[in-house]
Design a protein that fits this description.
The structure is a single chain. Helices cover 28% and strands 29% of the residues. The chain has 7 helices and 15 strands. Strands 1, 2, 3, 4, 5, 6 and 15 form a 7-stranded mixed sheet that branches.
């Protein structure tokens, strides 16, 4: 499968400007033969908490844009926005396939309390595990990568490829790199972290988007470069590593349950 991601200096709360970038990158990724394009967290606005201004109900402006772009560019897109449901707002991602079918959303389970996200966004409570091509993918969002419990639960649901859109600040870039690698190693899965670059909302972002292999090695990192990046990955790489070093088969949930840490 050929996968792509896009990273750019998200234009703060300017949906049309970010749509323009996204359209350009989707067409470029499709022309390179990619089957899936992953966008940074809240790609159309940046990580803004002004939910009264930016939040949308499902099937409104951003949702419709991504759906029709996927069809027009003939590429699946994983992207999200601030989703309003009743009185609550969630930080979500959807999967839009090239035929116009939409699955999701995944709502960020862990809003970032230290940054104030919990004051404006509600946390979700469901995993989103879905087959795509030869893999079973599972998206999480940014701060979620600090919680290994999510990833363990997901591999119990057969997830094999974790995708993490983010707006991860430059000040904690070492945490970002370490956590992405750790999640790949402990789940023996592909992990793709897609972060923005530039600055917005008073924070700087270093990018460091990267694809990690199931053995924990970096396959490709796009650093602080703006653009779209594509790479082929194979089912064989995942299966070979899990057969050679079958750590996930050695888990003992029957023991963990006695400690009250496994359901």
């Amino acid at each position: 499968m050929k996968i792509a991601w896009a990273s750019w200096d998200l234009v703060w709360e300017d949906k049309e400007a970010n749509f323009s970038y996204t359209r350009k990158y989707a067409i470029s990724a499709a022309n390179q033969g990619s089957e899936l394009l992953v966008l940074p967290e809240m790609f159309s606005t940046g990580f803004s908490f002004e939910v009264d201004r930016i939040a949308e109900s499902c099937n409104e402006r951003t949702h419709s844009f991504l759906k029709h772009l996927a069809i027009d560019a003939k590429i699946a897109i994983l992207g999200g926005y601030a989703l309003k449901r009743g009185e609550k707002v969630y930080n979500v991602v959807f999967l839009f396939d090239k035929d116009g079918q939409v699955t999701g959303p995944y709502a960020k389970i862990h809003p970032f309390s230290a940054g104030g996200e919990t004051e404006r966004f509600s946390g979700g409570d469901n995993l989103f595990v879905v087959p795509f091509k030869e893999f079973i993918i599972c998206p999480f969002i940014c701060y979620d990568i600090r919680f290994p419990e999510l990833f363990i639960a997901a591999i119990e649901s057969k997830a094999e490829f974790f995708i993490i859109p983010a707006n991860w600040p430059k000040t904690r870039r070492d945490h970002w790199k370490t956590l992405l690698t750790a999640r790949a190693i402990e789940t023996q899965s592909f992990v793709l972290g897609v972060n923005r670059i530039g600055a917005g909302g008073g924070l700087e972002y270093s990018g460091d988007s990267m694809l990690i292999s199931p053995d924990g090695s970096i396959i490709l990192s796009s650093g602080n470069i703006e653009g779209v990046f594509s790479i082929d990955i194979s089912r064989e790489m995942l299966d070979t590593w899990r057969e050679r070093f079958p750590a996930i088969n050695d888990k003992r949930p029957e023991v963990y349950r006695t400690w009250g840490i496994w359901t």
